[in-house]
Design brief:
Helix content: 10-25%
Number of helices: 1
Radius of gyration: 16 Å
Distance between the termini: 6 Å
CATH superfamily: Hotdog Thioesterase
Number of domains: 1
Bound molecules: coenzyme A
CATH architecture: Roll
Length: 139
């Protein structure tokens, strides 16, 4: 099985999530600022978890986030929104896995599914001593 997916040209006019649904949650009041907007840091945390779900599967074990690149916040997220994180494997190295995470949000007030952020996360497969180890190859 080949887990790496060719990344197509980004086209935000096409309102369809790209990737595998790896995590879904609801944005709660405790995750927002005084104006009711969800903190960017909370979203990054959900993206890190979603990427880790995919990286754990690929690495068949423990992983650590080594880098977060190319973050972009496109739209605010309202409290009560259903937040969905989609992951696409961009690259697998010896021990590293580069994963694109897209976040989409839907609020019951208009039921519109909107892309709110995207970022590139790199995880490294590590052993029990925190040393890097090879990502198992799939045939
Ligand atoms: C992850 C960690 C074990 C890697 O150790 P290291 O000594 O940097 O290992 P290496 O230099 O051999 O790099 C390992 C892999 O990560 C990749 N890598 C390292 N830094 C990177 C970066 N900034 N961006 C992208 N990839 C990176 C390397 O290219 C290498 O990939 P490959 O094995 O596929 O060729 C170590 O940096 C670490 O423990 N970091 C803290 C992780 C952590 O706690 N994360 C949670 C956030 S607090």
């Amino acid at each position: 099985m080949n887990d790496i997916v060719e990344i197509e040209e980004d086209n935000d006019d096409v309102p369809t999530p790209v990737g595998e649904l790896s995590l879904q949650t609801i944005a709660m009041p405790a995750d927002s600022n005084a104006d009711g907007d969800i903190f960017g840091g909370w979203l990054v945390s959900q993206m890190d978890l979603a990427g880790a779900v995919t990286a754990n599967r690929l690495a068949r074990g423990r992983v650590a986030t080594v880098a977060i690149d190319s973050m972009v916040f496109l739209r605010p997220v309202a409290v009560g929104s259903v937040v969905s994180c989609y992951t696409t494997v961009k690259d697998i190295g010896r021990s590293s896995m580069t994963i694109i995470v897209e976040v989409w949000a839907r609020h019951h007030s208009d039921a519109e599914h909107r892309k709110v952020t995207e970022g590139q996360f790199t995880f490294v497969a590590i052993d029990e001593n925190r040393r890097t180890r090879p990502v198992p190859r799939t045939s």
